[in-house]
Amino acid sequence: MDGLLINSEDMVGEATNHLLRKYGRPLLTQSMRARLMGVSGSTNSDMFHDWARLPISHEEWATELGEQMGRYFQDCKPLPGTKILLSNLSRAQTASGTRIELALASTSKASSYKLKTSRPETREIPDFFQSERRVLGDDPRLREGRSKPAPDIYSIALASLNSGLPSSTILPKECLVFEDSVAGVEAGRRAGMRVVWVPHPALAVEYQARQKAVLAGRTGMFDIGDDWQLGDIDDGWAESIASLEHFEYSKYGIQVPSWISLGKENF
Questions:
Q1: Which of 21, 49, 73 is the last residue in one of the domains?
Q2: Domain membership flag for residue 141
Q3: Which SUPFAM superfamilies match (predicted)?
């Protein structure tokens, strides 16, 4: 959700810079911002504090940043293509006539999720996902320490889809993950799913030379073992697009009814 469906990653950056400015520290560089995106707890990690050299403790920073982000998150808005993509997928089917099933897998905790989807523009987004098909960062089904880039959150999301189906079982290889973060791409690859990477412009620039490694989940940024779960360079199991507006449905055998407009944010 964050940085993919809504502009909350920008809000994290703005909130962080607000406090860095308060304490007379340099603002986030593009490189540092890229390293923080999509990684749970990264804005209070040792890596961040070693770079920021703040005059306050980890605990004080966490409290202040949490309060600041809470203010910013109330102003989150959908990113380009979000509404039309969700609308199309909710009514689409495969070539064999099977309907597309949707699940949300986000490292956002429930309290942040509620804030981020509180505006009229974002309030409609959760409606596309049944409540049991929303897997958040503090979901009891997600074991502690097994957030992205571990595959667990996507495996849980898939289980939530299959538990609501009367007969057939969806396999990991039949799933398509949409992700904006490097950690999220790796999580999707480790789950055995195909991935569409829609990076923030700053992230795309930062990893331009390593895009193939990102798509394979082989950046080496995360050491969690189980490397057999990762993909291979140029294996065709992942791609990168500039925004959700550029998603090609037919490429994945997804058929959108002709009466649905593909070019308008129609709700």
A1: 73
A2: yes
A3: HAD-like
Domain extent, residue 38, equals 8-73
Question: Is position 170 within any domain?
Answer: yes
Q: What is the DSSP string of 30-97?
A: HHHHHHHTT-TTGGGSHHHHHHH--SS-HHHHHHHHHHHHHHHHTT--BPTTHHHHHHHHHH-EETTS
Strands (E) in 205-259, as ranges, are 238-240, 254-255
CA dist., res. 12 & res. 3, Å (int): 10
pLDDT digits (tens, 9 = 90+) for 151-196: 999 999 999 999 978 777 999 999 999 999 999 999 999 999 999 9
Say if CB 203 and CB 37 are below 8 A apart: yes
- Gap between the Cα atoms of 237 and 231, Å rounded: 8
In contact, 221 and 45? CB cutoff 8 Å:
no
Contact 149, 184 (CB under 8 A): yes
Spell out the alpha helix ranges (H) of 92-233: 110-116, 120-123, 152-163, 182-190, 201-206, 211-216
